[in-house]
Amino acid sequence: MALTRCQREVLDFLRGFVEEHGYCPSFEEIGRGMEYSSLATVHKHISSLEKKGYLRRSRNCSRSIDLVNPDLERRREQRALAARQRLPLLGRIAAGRPLEAIETQDSISLADIAGQGEVFALQVQGDSMIDEHIMEGDYVLVEKDPRAYDGQLVVALVDGQEATLKRFYLERRGEFKGKVRLQPSNSRLDPMYFPPETVQVQGHVVGILRRY
User: Fold this and answer.
1) How many CB atoms lie within 10 A of CB 120?
2) What are the DSSP calls for 29-69, one per residue?
3) At what angle do helices 39-51 and 27-34 cross, to 10 degrees?
4) Residue 97 gets which letter from DSSP?
5) Where in the sequence is the domain holding 155, given as residue range(s)?
6) How many CB atoms lie within 10 A of CB 80?
7) Exposure check for the chain: N or C terminus, fewer CB within 10 A?
8) Are residues 193 and 126 in the same domain?
9) Mind telling me the catalytic residues?
10) Cα separation, 120 vs 209, whole angstroms
11) What does the pLDDT profile of the chain (212 residues) look like in tens digits?
């Protein structure tokens, strides 16, 4: 969350104090260091920084402030959530000839599929990608990325209004040279061509989930 100028100055003072002394200052030391005439002002800024996730306080302690890195805390929470969402991976199942059933002690989570990028999910509507076995009602996991390469399966926003799931191509020859081709995977549907400036890539697909 955004900080006011005063909150930023207090946070910078706290970080500098910790670097110099190895521990956080008391409210009185903050007041003196920031030249505040009232401890109420210190309490106000510390409470605001706590609410915004930049520090935490222990009650009934003279040096009750602990600095927090919000980005680090967010990543820890994401890892903890991913750990809670892990499923036992018990082995492999044959879709062709039968395999010997061997139970393994492993697990899998959405984080294993999504990787380290910023990923969001979208539910598929329609059958334009059915030849790739992407069906209506499936969920696609999309990694945010404005870049796209020929053949990538992307979520594209056309004219800032309509989002679509298609294979991305940039035509380099022929009558559509210079146009973006959004290619469906359905033999009944034709490709769509757009000027590049009207197509905004939202991200590329990294996984598909289906619920039966």
Assistant:
1) 13
2) HHHHHHT-S-HHHHHHHHHHHHHTTSEEE-TT-TT-EEE--
3) 110
4) S
5) 117-209
6) 10
7) C
8) yes
9) 128, 166
10) 12
11) 678 889 889 888 988 888 888 788 888 999 999 999 888 998 899 888 888 888 887 665 556 687 776 555 555 566 666 555 566 655 554 555 555 545 555 666 666 666 667 888 889 988 999 999 999 989 888 888 899 999 999 999 998 888 899 999 999 998 999 999 999 999 999 999 999 999 999 999 998 988 88
Token reading at 101: 């059933």
Number of domains in the chain: 3
CA-to-CA distance for 181 and 174, rounded, in angstroms? 12
Out of 112, 135, 166, pick the residue that ends a domain: 112
Question: Which residue type sits at 138?
Answer: D
CB atoms within 10 A of CB 147: 10
